[in-house]
Amino acid sequence: MKPVNELTTPALAYLGDAVIELYVRERLVAAGYSTSATLNQKALDYVRAGAQAEAMQKILPLLTEEEQAVFRRGRNMGHGNVPKGATVAQYRAATGMEVLAGYLHVQGKGERLRELLCAAYEFENTDI
Questions:
Q1: Is 127 a catalytic residue?
Q2: Which one is catalytic: 15, 17, 97, 103?
Q3: Which residues contact 126 (CB under 8 A, 6 or more apart)?
Q4: What is the pLDDT of residue 86?
Q5: Can you give the residue ranges of every domain in the chain?
């Protein structure tokens, strides 16, 4: 993979979206949910823009200056399409969270990413 400074903000958001989705799915399976319908519905409770924006508010005070700058980079990215059920502010915060997740993933900071996602979503910090 290219170095993180060579990746575009949309590319980091795209990757971060997948990283967050995988994290949530792993936690839901570990929690014992087993049907695809239940898993998909529960996952939406965590990965919708509004839920991500709320999660981001929980972890903002925990971010380093570098992480805050990455979050702002994503939040301030141009947004052409805002999904139904989300405000522009929620969508921007969710995109910032996705960029941060993508950034930490590419940087190889999996433990830090897991720590932040556990705090954001109030999951136990397990080895999953």
A1: no
A2: 17
A3: 30
A4: 86
A5: 4-121
